[in-house]
Amino acid sequence: MEAAAIEGPPASEVRERLVAFLEEVTPGLGHVRRRENALVYVRGLVEQGGRKSLQPTLFRLGEDAARYESVQQFLADSPWEPALLLRACAERVASEIGVLAWVVDDTGVKKDGEHSPGVKRQWSGTLGKVDNCQLTVSVHAVGARGTLPLGWALYLPEEWCDDLARRRKAKIPDALCFRVRRGGGRLGDPDRAHPRRCRLRRRQRL
After folding, report:
1. What angle do CA 165, 167, 171 make, to 5 degrees?
2. Helix (H, G, I), strand (E, B), or coil: what is residue 161?
3. 40-83: per-residue pLDDT in tens?
4. Residue 54 shares a structural domain with residue 89
5. What pLDDT, on a 0 to 100 scale, did the predictor assign at position 103?
6. Mind giving me the DSSP string for 32-92?
7. Does some domain include residue 4?
8. CA nearest to 68, candidates 86, 56, 79
9. 15 three-class SS
């Protein structure tokens, strides 16, 4: 039995659509160099390839060391406001997917070592066990034609919040404080609740 071939649009057409989308949602980044770096970074994430860490991703795209330094500075230190970009993406995509509900949940990211912000041995539902990991908290719009991430934040355990030197080394703002999840308990506890799903009423809007 022969496998059926699945034909899609040419790669050049997909890339043109990606460029057009990013041109629509990135004006809030301000400087043209930031918008260029955003395009390169997103291409590296969505186009085919192996590891998604920054250096091999950019080199697969044919970028040089200067671009690597520029994108690294854009991601780590450039003073742009992520909320503006998230809002622009939400406004552009939400109407296309027919939003029915919001889903709030956390995702575990396995890590080695102890220097990544927020990392510790803690429970992760994603991994299904206690392990050395980071936890991120997200809210997604779920619709009839797809899903859209509306917000994504790193969870900071209490011991990280109490260690000012460690926070500053990881460039975590001093004003960020520890928060217990709504309903009691902490993220990273094995008995934490299931994801929350909130249906939209007819007149509710994003």
Report:
1. 115
2. helix
3. 999 988 886 777 889 888 888 899 999 999 999 999 888 888 88
4. no
5. 92
6. HHHHHHHHHHHHHHHSS-S--SHHHHHHHTT--HHHHHHHHHHHHT----HHHHHHHHHHH
7. no
8. 56
9. helix
Give residue 64's pLDDT: 92
Mean pLDDT to the nearest integer, 196-200: 44
Name residues whose C-beta falls within 8 Å of residue 41's C-beta, 6 or more positions apart in sequence: 54, 71, 74, 75
CA-CA distance, 71 to 93, in Å (whole number)?
25
How far apart CA 140 and CA 204 sit, in angstroms, is 15
Q: Compare 94 and 10 and report the one with higher pLDDT.
A: 94
Q: Does residue 103 lie within any of the structural domains?
A: yes
Residue 33 falls inside a structural domain: yes
Q: State pTM to two decimals.
A: 0.66
pLDDT of res. 47: 81
Instruction: Indicate whether 56 and 123 sit together in one domain.
Output: no
| 25-36 residue pLDDT tens | 999 998 999 999
Which domain, by its residues, includes 38?
Answer: 11-76
Residue 76 Rama label (left phi>0; alpha psi -120 to 50; beta): alpha
42 shares a domain with 25: yes
Q: Are 4 and 63 in contact (CB under 8 A)?
A: no
In the numeric block, which tokens belong to residue 182? 């709504």
Same domain as 122, residue 21 = no
Count other C-beta atoms under 10 Å from residue 53's C-beta: 9
